[in-house]
Amino acid sequence: MAARSRSKTGKAKRSLRRPARNPILSPTSPEAQREALADRLAQETAAAFQAVLHPQDGPADHPVKGLHDAVREAYDVCTAMLDELQLDPPLACKRGCIHCCYNQVALTEPEALFLGLHLLGTRSPERLRELADKAQALADRLKGKSWQEIGMLRHELPCLFLEDGGCSIYPARPLACRGWNSVDEKMCLLSNLSGDALTPIENHPIVREIADGIQSGLLRGSSELGLEAGYLLMARATALLLTGDPEQGVMDTTAEWLDGKPFFGRKARW
Ligand code: SF4
Fold first, then answer.
1. Which listed residue, 187, 188, 211, 226, has the most CB atoms within 10 A of its CB?
2. Residue 129 lies in a domain
3. Are 31 and 38 in contact (CB under 8 A)?
4. Residue 229's domain spans which residues?
């Protein structure tokens, strides 16, 4: 029976990726153990997120920095946990492999804002303007399409941040990218060559669930603080963040979201 998985667009779907054997899980109930791990990670991430943004001794002095640090910490936890896994068969994924980057990625509000801050810190004003145009063109192309339609078109739509044969935001890539995995590069290549979005790709569920658990924690932590929590399409989020003056756009969107306003509050429809 096929397992369920989450696509990079973040929508649950019938899994196209068969689970591979994983020796660190109990042979009796691996699904239950993974679920418990994901739930524990969600709880811990949510608690850590809230502790940074709303410390017990009063409001955070620097909420924007707090948001940045909380997401950085969540990503570091994810990296450390994935690095500790001893997977059999090993992952085929390695830095520089880009088959799964022919995709549109979903991310949470805290991740989108972290990405915006990362872009401000790593790109010149000119490169930000170029990126803003590229993001807007992609957002226009996706206009009116459902998550499912976008998923089915994935081979035609490389990620906005796939540049010069690699991920140009690697340290800030979303959790969806961190959890997406494969044990056979040939399957990923075939999927792209055939253009069939339903191509089965064997993978390790534990990797996805660690990333999913941490992502759920960011959503839970946001929601429990009364902040909007959901999935955003990275192309739309980037286009909005960089509209007009990119620095102002990122800082304003971050401040507004931290103030309880919707992420796309300044742009009602896509
Ligand atoms: S953010 Fe980076 S890793 Fe994720 S799909 Fe885009 S290029 Fe690939």
1. 211
2. yes
3. no
4. 4-11+31-90+105-152+205-258
Give the distance (Å) from ligand 1 centre to CA of residue 160: 8
Name the residue type at position 159: C
- Provide the domain count of the chain: 1
* 25 occurs within a structural domain: no
211-235 as b/e, with b when 16 or more CB fall inside 10 Å? bbbbbbbbbbbbeeeebbbebbbbb
E strands, 94-243, in order: 106-108, 162-163, 166-167, 231-233
The DSSP code for 244 is S
167 ligand 1 Cβ < 6 A: yes
Better-scored residue on pLDDT, 187 or 21:
187
Give 10 Cα–ligand 1 centroid separation in angstroms. 14
Q: pTM here?
A: 0.89
What percentage of the chain carries pLDDT values higher than 90?
Answer: 77
